Amino acid sequence: MAAAPRTVIEHCAIATVDAEDTEYASGHLVLAGDRIESLGAGPAPADLQNVVRRIDASGHLATPGLVNTHHHFYQWLTRGLATDHNLFDWLVALYPVWARIDEPMVHAAAQGSLAMMARGGVTTAMDHHYVFPRGSGDLSGAIVAAARDMGVRLTLARGSMDRGEQDGGLPPDFAVETLDQALTATEETVARHHDPSSDAMTQVAVAPCSPFSVSTELLRQSAGLARRLGVRLHTHGSETVEEEKYCHDQFGMGPTDYFESTGWLGEDVWMAHCVHMNDSDIAAFARTGTGVAHCPSSNARLAAGIARVPDLLAAGVPVGLGVDGTASNESGELHTELRNALLINRLGRHREAALTARQALRLGTHGGARVLGRAGEIGSLEAGKLADLVLWRIDTLAHSSIADPVAALVLGAPAPVTASFVGGRQIVENGRLLTADEHTIARTTRTEAQRLARIAAQN
Ligand SMILES: [Zn+2]
């Protein structure tokens, strides 16, 4: 059998984010097929056969592709609204608009969200989609198609809500499903789209929205469903003081105890935010291996608070980074979250080393892969892993006087992406998507955002 064609990348700094945090001041990577075949210091061996492409990456830092662990693609159409609200008021303002989404809107929003992340170095995206208005079409299919066409790896967290206003929840009643509808549709989504293989482009998780929009029974049965199907579980947790109060009022316990009582702590679970956690909550996450998607910009935008990331990491909790939906983080970029995570966590408890630059990079790569259950195949640059990687340009005005390339990436201005690869396939070149046309997406998303605003105003 002929060897797979090889791509050689050399003369760049490399931050592998492997278990030892191995770095090379000047090194090389050899890609073969969809995998990293080898990497190391200095130039690639001169006698390599079947090299079809050789990239001189001088002036660049190579890192694993960024892994986003929490997002809501549909919100691309409702950016810049309710800009001065806390979470609950923001939800009440936006749910009536969100309840009018349909398949073309969701497809356009997914393209916008994915394009913005991909050109900023994201190679694995996730979409927590939980708004399924009656008659709105095949929303999960539209999201999966958008990611597949763009060549970005995706975890689709099939969300659900069954606690509308009449049951004491926040979403309007016409935007929620029944318990049975939610479970049946979720199981169908797993059957249609989940690929359990190590090189999967699409995986599906079971993801009821939050303690204040789903019934206890939906949480409990979702946990059972996910474990029966062998897929992961995701939801929002401990995001705000209001949520904490809601859980105490409704269930007589805090969010973490409530999750534990419904089968929602475990190494197959990750939760977005986890801002309001006491020491025993953190210990419960550590004991059970429950993961966290840290979303610093969204938490700041909604004045939710500062997650105790240094304490979570010290306890051994798996932590990744999340953009969160772009209605609460209008930039929609993950590479800027490396910097925001570092800065915000230093403000939290006034610790100058609360997060180091290397820890921030780890959150956005290996940490994310861990919480998505994919650390065996992505999240670090190691021989045998999938060739998901980014070349960041750090030799221009913005970064050239910073000697430490990881400090340049994390602390400096957003570094331009010269190339981004997913499974060995290049999807970005010089900041431009190779797999989709940004201008077309910009036009389509504007048209669909206006259509949604019109429909929502009529109702
Ligand atoms: Zn969210």
Description:
α4 links the parallel β8 (153-160) and β9. α2 (103-118) runs parallel beside α3, α11 (335-349) crosses α12 and α12 crosses α13. Strands 1, 2, 3, 4, 5, 14, 15, 16 and 17 form a nine-stranded mixed beta sheet that branches. This protein has a four-stranded parallel beta sheet with strand order 6-7-8-9. A four-stranded parallel beta sheet has the order 10-11-12-13. The protein has two domains: 6-64 and 377-433, Urease, subunit C, domain 1; 66-371, TIM Barrel (Alpha-Beta Barrel), CATH 3.20.20. The model has no long low-confidence stretch (mean pLDDT 96). The chain is globular and about 70 Å long. The chain is built from 14 helices and 17 strands. The protein is an alpha/beta fold. The protein starts with 5 loop residues before the first strand and ends with a helix.
Write down the overall geometry: globular
How many structurally independent domains? Answer: 2
Give the cofactors and ligands. Answer: zinc ion
**CATH topology annotation of the largest domain:** TIM Barrel
The CATH architecture category of the largest domain equals Alpha-Beta Barrel
Key words describing this protein structure:
four-stranded parallel beta sheet, 459 residues, TIM Barrel, EC 3.5.4.32, 8-oxoguanine deaminase activity, alpha/beta, 2 domains, Urease, subunit C, domain 1, Metal-dep_hydrolase_composite, binds zinc ion
Describe how the helices and strands are arranged.
Layout: E1 6-15, E2 23-32, E3 35-41, E4 51-56, E5 60-64, E6 66-67, H1 87-98, H2 103-118, E7 122-129, H3 139-150, E8 153-160, H4 179-193, E9 202-208, H5 216-229, E10 233-237, H6 241-251, H7 255-261, E11 269-273, H8 279-288, E12 291-294, H9 296-301, H10 309-315, E13 319-321, H11 335-349, H12 357-371, E14 389-393, H13 405-411, E15 417-422, E16 425-429, E17 432-433, H14 438-458
Parallel strand pairs: 1-4, 1-5, 6-7, 7-8, 8-9, 10-11, 11-12, 12-13
Antiparallel strand pairs: 1-2, 2-3, 5-14, 14-15, 15-16, 16-17
Helix pairs in contact: 2-3, 2-14, 4-5, 11-12, 12-13
The chain binds zinc ion.
Zinc ion (ZN) is lined by residues 70, 72, 236, 272, 324-325.
Domain Amidohydrolase-related: 62-410
EC number: 3.5.4.32
InterPro entries: Amidohydro-rel, Metal-dep_hydrolase_composite, Metal_Hydrolase, MTA/SAH_deaminase
